[in-house]
Design goal:
The chain is an all-alpha fold. It has twelve helices and no strands. It has helices at 29-55, 75-115, 121-131, 136-150, 156-179, 184-192, 197-208, 210-225, 229-234, 243-253, 258-283, 287-292. Helix 1 crosses helix 11.
Length: 293
């Protein structure tokens, strides 16, 4: 019999790994993106720079204002503080009080809409959304008629309530979105320990929702601080006058005194700028991570 031959075992073929895909290089490169970003930011911030630049110039027209100031004059700020200092204080009082009132009303309302599973929650939330679509001039005219009958025109309390008509619905929407993510086990643990609903809400839910409260309060402050429609409609004398209305009437009286006008605008921008810088780390933070911690 012829000898049987066995075929050699076939060796396993190993395929070389595919090379990683080569990403095409962008024609601008990283430095090009940086330069474009700087140019865009410079264009967007140029009006702010021009406002500060004009406020530091001597009294006169903005046409002759140099692009780069050679000497600084603070006469405009002195006149702005003298003429608009009371209006700035009025705006500050109304804005802070509107934030406090809006959060006081919106926080429990948002918690009820987020945690209490009731049939009326969806219609109420839909009504709040619809209220944001009502033009402000409609609300201002209705409030003027009501305030005129109640004798609440030219009052700080009337402006606080009027500005809260924007702050409360917006704060409810923001706080409800955050409070919906609060673990119910936290509230249940507090209830087991003997805390009531109000105690659990104040001791557990509010500290956990700190980021949401700061976010809602910040936007409410910005709404109120920049309000012009309610200030124009609900004030008829110079006793109670926010800075937005004071600046508007200041333009008509001193249209050539642009350094004082721009100084007033710069002073009115400082509180909002400080709050935005101080609260930016809380705006982007999520309530879920704060609750788990």
């Amino acid at each position: 019999m012829p000898p049987t031959t066995t075929a050699p075992p076939t060796a396993s073929v190993r395929h070389a790994p595919a090379p990683p895909p080569v990403r095409p290089k962008h024609p601008l490169g990283p430095w090009g993106h940086t330069v474009c970003a700087v140019l865009i930011v410079a264009v967007m911030l140029f009006p702010v720079y021009w406002m500060v630049n004009v406020s530091l110039q001597p009294r006169g027209s903005t046409i002759t204002t140099p692009l780069i100031p050679t000497s600084l004059h603070f006469d405009g700020y002195a006149r702005a503080l003298h003429d608009q200092g009371r209006n700035l204080l009025t705006s500050l009082i109304v804005s802070v009080a509107s934030v406090a009132f809006s959060l006081l009303v919106a926080a429990p309302a948002a918690y009820a809409l987020a945690q209490l599973r009731a049939r009326w929650a969806a219609p109420v939330l839909l009504a709040i959304l619809f209220s944001q679509m009502i033009p402000g001039i409609v609300v201002a005219n209705a409030l003027f008629s009501t305030y005129n009958q109640l004798g609440a025109l030219n009052s700080i309390g009337g402006l606080i309530l009027a500005d809260s008509t924007h702050g409360v619905p917006f704060a409810i929407l923001i706080l409800r979105a955050f409070m919906s993510n609060v673990p119910s086990s936290l509230v249940e643990a507090a209830r087991v320990d003997g805390a009531g609903r109000i105690r659990a809400f104040c001791s557990i839910v509010l500290p956990v929702s700190r980021n949401a409260l700061i976010t809602a309060g910040l936007f409410t402050f910005l709404f109120t601080w920049s309000d012009f429609l309610f200030a124009l409609t609900l004030t008829t004398t110079e006793d109670i006058r926010p800075v937005t209305l004071g600046l508007y009437e200041y333009l008509g009286a001193h249209v050539a005194d642009w350094n004082t006008v721009m100084a007033t605008a710069t002073l009115s921008s400082i509180p909002a700028l400080i709050l935005l810088v101080a609260a930016q780390r809380y705006i982007a933070a999520g309530v879920g991570s704060g609750a788990l911690k």
